[in-house]
Amino acid sequence: MSPTVAEMLEAAAERMRAPELLSEDPRQEARELVAHALGIVPAQLADCAHERLDARAHGDFLRLLQRRLSLEPTGYIVGAVEILGSLGLVFGVLTRLAAAGLILVMLGAIQKKIFVWHTGFWGKGSQGWHYDLIFIVMNLVIIVTDGGRFVLMK
Fold it and tell me: CB–CB of 2/58 below 8 Å?
């Protein structure tokens, strides 16, 4: 018999507490993995805490957990997009595409700060989402101006 959502959350949070994972919030990471496996947002987990995972969702979750336990950072794809987008802007290569990619990253960061971390606009100690909004506006300017006159490839 497969575990309930609540049992899976508890077991995953316990495994995420491993010191080598360097997780700031193991419970939250476990919530994100379980929600992703179920195809829902983490806020909906409370509604289905006592439901049993079907075989597909259980398998999806175990694969996600294994990737995380093998020290793969949760946001490694986002990190790659940030680096490639930044390089594109710095060297003037595909500036519109690079700026659009960075806008998507910043929108994801704002969403996480507002709905997951419940951070205000200014936040505490510059941890708000005001800088992310500034980066979105700057990238919109780059998109509208097509990167300006000094780009290598449009």
Answer: yes
- Which tokens in the block code for residue 85? 């987008």
| Residues across the chain | 154
Q: Quote the CA–CA distance of 60 and 69 in Å, as a whole number.
A: 14
104: left (phi over 0), alpha (psi -120 to 50) or beta: alpha
For the whole model, what pTM was predicted? Answer: 0.53
Are 45 and 87 a contacting pair, CB within 8 Å? no
Per-residue pLDDT tens over the stretch 86-129: 899 989 888 999 999 899 888 888 887 888 778 888 877 667 88
Integer Rg of the chain from CA = 19
Tokens encoding 45: 């987990």
What is the sign of the dihedral through the CA atoms of 104, 109, 114 and 120?
negative
What is the DSSP annotation of the chain?
Answer: -PPBHHHHHHHHHHHHT-GGG--S-HHHHHHHHHHHHHTS-GGGGGGGTTSBPPHHHHHHHHHHHHHHHTT--TTHHHHHHHHHHHHHHHHTBSHHHHHHHHHHHHHHHHHIIIIIS---SS-SSS-SSHHHHHHHHHHHHHHHHTT-S--SB-
